[in-house]
Amino acid sequence: MNNRPPLRRSAPVETENDGIIEGRNAVIEALRAGVAIDKIFLLKGERDSALGHIASAAREKGIVVVDADRRKLDNMSRTHSHQGVIAQAAVREYASVDDILAAARDKDEPPLIVVCDELSDPHNLGAVIRTADAAGAHGVIIPKRRSAGLTAVVAKTSAGAVAHVPVARVANLPTVLKELKEAGVWVFGTAMDGSTSLYHADLKGPAAIVIGSEGEGMGRLVGESCDFTVSIPMFGKINSLNASAAAAVLLYEAVRQRTGN
């Protein structure tokens, strides 16, 4: 009788339900296997050669590498054995801005794009993507730094919309806004003191709607890159809306104008 254990086969890279991959070997294997990774968090100040190799390999692939202190890594860790490195998997590959413009051309529609300026709350980003899908927007653009990415939390909050809405992640939002304008897209930024009331903004043509961060709104350079700043009329005691709610209001005003309703 053969009592030897069965031969072990190499298993695919596994992630936790929230997309966490931790430990040096696991992260290196994920990089080798081409797993879509949103960000890699490395222990700040650590000079270990293995971590240096991970950082170099990640940057070559265009993956964001973030220095993190031990407390942050410990809080993120599920195994309590992160070895100074944790990767956060993306639920899908990022698109390019050209992919988003091509999606509009394929539908023979003027582009309708949402640009999120440093939305750090994954629930907000997920809600924006869900609304973008419902409103028929052609894509969402986010910055590489200081923004939530396409993580499992975002996917869950989007109710599956991440599978249908192209999301591009770019290094420099002002540069991309300039390129969009050169492509004939008008850029509308949301601001409490916007120069144009929402109901006077013409959103029927090619439009990119910029949604500012939860606390600070649009950054200065992003704001200066907009063709118009748009304010949403407020009639209560609170003078602003949640970022995802503001995106929904502007997107559906664009839908109303475009459908003639």
TrEMBL record:
Q: Which GO terms describe its cellular component?
A: cytosol
Highest taxon of the lineage = Bacteria
Q: Which GO terms describe its molecular function?
A: RNA binding; RNA methyltransferase activity
Q: Which Gene3D superfamilies match?
A: 3.30.1330.30, 3.40.1280.10
- Key words of the record: Methyltransferase, Transferase
Task: Answer yes or no on keyword Oxidoreductase.
Answer: no
Biological process according to GO: methylation; RNA processing
Against SMART domains, the record matches this protein to: SpoU_sub_bind
InterPro entries on file: Alpha/beta_knot_MTases (IPR029028), Ribosomal_eL30-like_sf (IPR029064), rRNA_MeTrfase_TrmH (IPR004441), SpoU_MeTrfase (IPR001537), SpoU_subst-bd (IPR013123), tRNA_m1G_MTases_N (IPR029026)
The family database entries (CDD domains) matched by this protein are listed as: SpoU-like_RlmB
Question: Which Pfam families does the protein's record reference?
Answer: SpoU_methylase, SpoU_sub_bind
Please give the family membership noted in the entry.
Belongs to the class IV-like SAM-binding methyltransferase superfamily. RNA methyltransferase TrmH family.
Name of the protein this chain belongs to: 23S rRNA (Guanosine(2251)-2'-O)-methyltransferase RlmB
